[in-house]
Design goal:
This protein is an alpha+beta fold. It is built from three helices and three strands. The protein has a single domain, classed as Split barrel-like, CATH 3.20.180.10.
Protein backbone atom coordinates (compact mmCIF):
# COMPACT_ATOMS: atom_id res chain seq x y z
CA UNK A 1 0.00 0.00 0.00
CA UNK A 2 1.29 3.47 -0.79
CA UNK A 3 1.77 6.18 1.82
CA UNK A 4 -1.56 7.19 3.35
CA UNK A 5 -2.34 10.51 5.00
CA UNK A 6 -3.59 10.35 8.59
CA UNK A 7 -6.82 12.20 9.37
CA UNK A 8 -6.00 15.29 11.45
CA UNK A 9 -9.20 15.27 13.50
CA UNK A 10 -8.80 11.88 15.21
CA UNK A 11 -11.84 12.37 17.46
CA UNK A 12 -14.11 12.92 14.45
CA UNK A 13 -12.58 9.94 12.65
CA UNK A 14 -13.16 7.68 15.65
CA UNK A 15 -16.74 8.94 16.04
CA UNK A 16 -17.46 8.13 12.39
CA UNK A 17 -15.82 4.70 12.65
CA UNK A 18 -17.72 3.81 15.83
CA UNK A 19 -21.05 4.98 14.41
CA UNK A 20 -20.73 3.23 11.05
CA UNK A 21 -19.34 0.01 12.55
CA UNK A 22 -22.12 -0.15 15.14
CA UNK A 23 -25.13 1.08 13.17
CA UNK A 24 -24.41 0.41 9.49
CA UNK A 25 -22.89 -3.05 9.15
CA UNK A 26 -25.20 -3.98 6.25
CA UNK A 27 -24.06 -0.94 4.30
CA UNK A 28 -20.39 -1.71 5.01
CA UNK A 29 -20.94 -5.24 3.79
CA UNK A 30 -22.39 -3.99 0.51
CA UNK A 31 -19.49 -1.53 0.10
CA UNK A 32 -16.99 -4.35 0.73
CA UNK A 33 -18.71 -6.73 -1.68
CA UNK A 34 -18.89 -4.08 -4.39
CA UNK A 35 -15.40 -2.61 -4.16
CA UNK A 36 -13.80 -5.94 -3.23
CA UNK A 37 -15.60 -7.56 -6.16
CA UNK A 38 -16.50 -10.51 -3.98
CA UNK A 39 -20.09 -11.31 -3.02
CA UNK A 40 -18.81 -14.03 -0.67
CA UNK A 41 -17.69 -11.39 1.84
CA UNK A 42 -20.02 -11.83 4.80
CA UNK A 43 -18.62 -9.30 7.27
CA UNK A 44 -16.84 -5.95 7.07
CA UNK A 45 -15.78 -3.29 9.56
CA UNK A 46 -13.86 -0.05 9.18
CA UNK A 47 -10.44 -0.51 10.77
CA UNK A 48 -9.13 2.95 9.78
CA UNK A 49 -9.91 6.02 7.72
CA UNK A 50 -7.33 8.04 5.83
CA UNK A 51 -7.58 11.17 3.68
CA UNK A 52 -7.37 8.90 0.63
CA UNK A 53 -9.93 6.27 1.63
CA UNK A 54 -11.12 3.68 4.14
CA UNK A 55 -9.47 0.48 5.30
CA UNK A 56 -11.92 -2.35 5.90
CA UNK A 57 -11.35 -5.69 7.54
CA UNK A 58 -13.39 -8.26 5.65
CA UNK A 59 -14.26 -11.88 6.26
CA UNK A 60 -15.21 -14.61 3.80
CA UNK A 61 -16.45 -18.05 4.91
CA UNK A 62 -13.62 -19.94 3.21
CA UNK A 63 -10.81 -18.01 4.96
CA UNK A 64 -10.38 -18.02 8.73
CA UNK A 65 -8.33 -14.81 8.89
CA UNK A 66 -9.78 -11.37 8.25
CA UNK A 67 -8.42 -9.63 5.19
CA UNK A 68 -7.71 -5.94 4.64
CA UNK A 69 -9.49 -4.13 1.82
CA UNK A 70 -8.53 -0.53 1.07
CA UNK A 71 -11.10 1.52 -0.82
CA UNK A 72 -10.06 4.84 -2.31
CA UNK A 73 -12.48 7.72 -1.96
CA UNK A 74 -13.95 8.83 -5.26
CA UNK A 75 -14.85 12.36 -4.16
CA UNK A 76 -13.01 15.20 -2.48
CA UNK A 77 -14.53 16.73 0.61
CA UNK A 78 -16.05 15.81 3.93
CA UNK A 79 -15.38 12.32 5.32
CA UNK A 80 -19.07 11.64 5.87
CA UNK A 81 -19.96 12.59 2.30
CA UNK A 82 -17.18 10.41 0.91
CA UNK A 83 -18.27 7.33 2.87
CA UNK A 84 -21.92 7.99 2.04
CA UNK A 85 -21.00 8.18 -1.65
CA UNK A 86 -19.24 4.80 -1.45
CA UNK A 87 -22.43 3.34 0.03
CA UNK A 88 -24.79 4.89 -2.53
CA UNK A 89 -22.48 3.91 -5.39
CA UNK A 90 -22.34 0.33 -4.09
CA UNK A 91 -26.12 0.14 -3.80
CA UNK A 92 -26.51 1.45 -7.35
CA UNK A 93 -23.93 -0.93 -8.83
CA UNK A 94 -25.53 -3.90 -7.11
CA UNK A 95 -28.99 -2.64 -8.12
CA UNK A 96 -30.19 -2.64 -4.53
CA UNK A 97 -32.76 -0.38 -2.99
CA UNK A 98 -31.27 2.11 -0.57
CA UNK A 99 -34.16 1.31 1.77
CA UNK A 100 -31.81 -0.04 4.43
CA UNK A 101 -29.64 3.06 4.21
CA UNK A 102 -31.56 6.06 5.53
CA UNK A 103 -30.67 9.65 4.71
CA UNK A 104 -29.31 9.90 8.22
CA UNK A 105 -26.58 7.35 7.44
CA UNK A 106 -23.93 9.23 9.39
CA UNK A 107 -26.05 11.06 11.93
Amino acid sequence: MTHLTTIKDQDRKLDIMDHVNQDHRKELLIIAQNYGKNNDIHDAVISDIYEEGILLQTQVPSVSMKQDLFIHFELKGDLEEQILYLAYNSFAKQKLSSVIMPNSFLK
